[in-house]
């Protein structure tokens, strides 16, 4: 059984690493595809907002689907759809016949895919992780994602600067296609049906209601999610909207943006390595406190620091973000029943990113109205103020780790049943 579980975990790990490698090219390619086409930060905001809205609009359905049907099937369909859409978009970019609405549609498709793939992937991890190694498995997968962000964005920036954004998006499409054989093999090992989904006879909307009940019954959970809604609005708008504009105006454009994303990825890697072994006694206050450091690169840009300082700040921001993610994901897996983990994750993501489209849609207008530096300071405030407030709440500081034993060790792994 251990060997089977390890093999299934390696397949999921490899499929994730392959697709993530290509996905690091996507944000650089999309950002400069929009900026090269219209030169408008507002248009970039609308494009990013379309992705956020599509994902938020379908997250609960995606979470319920991942708890009801085989999660590996959900991942397969999502990867296939992304590969097809991105090939078509990249072809249009390379032929020079792209329109802004097509880029908006591409972004929305990516968001829709994430609404289904992210909850499914989150639910698969405890099913295939080796017994007793849940936090380590989560940290390893996140570490693989982070490693991809060290080299990928820098190469993407150089590629976009040399050839345009079309090839960057095509590489992402190829990475999705390359992950499909690994996911198909994992599906054959898990079996056509996952037992816990068959036993659940509730409809989709009944499952969504059950997920809400579980979510709302834990004040510490929804308190941090509300905090994250403001933090993510500032962080995402600053990182994905204002940072491309800042690098274009203050530094070397696409190549500078790529290096900043890579520095963030290096911070992710360091944070992931620490997360492999460090288990704080009270991980929730630690996870909340680390969110404060996510605003470091935006603070450096707002202070108009030299580029090397911004790079160092991006490294710090990536480290803090990854430490938050490792401890938060592990808390969810340990505190919540596995049968509803995808739905709970969907509510977590929906609430955490609820205000993100607002930041994207109005970020361009705010930038035009008050200028780049004041807009960056606004994003820094959205990160710092809610974090300091929530950290002072007793309901957050009182949550402790329920134990070092992972929840899946008390029952046989599903991949061994199939």
UniProtKB/TrEMBL annotation:
Domain of life: Bacteria
Top-level taxonomy: Bacteria, Bacillati, Actinomycetota, Actinomycetes, Kitasatosporales
Bilayer disposition of the protein: Multi-pass membrane protein
InterPro entries the UniProt entry points to: MFS, MFS_trans_sf
Segments passing through the bilayer: 44-62, 74-94, 100-121, 142-161, 219-242, 254-276, 283-303, 358-391
Residue ranges of coiled coil: none
Signal peptide: none
Annotated protein name in UniProt: MFS transporter
Keyword Transmembrane helix: yes
Keywords carried by this UniProt record: Cell membrane, Membrane, Transmembrane, Transmembrane helix
Coarse class of the protein's main subcellular location: membrane
Keyword presence, rRNA processing: no
Subcellular location: Cell membrane
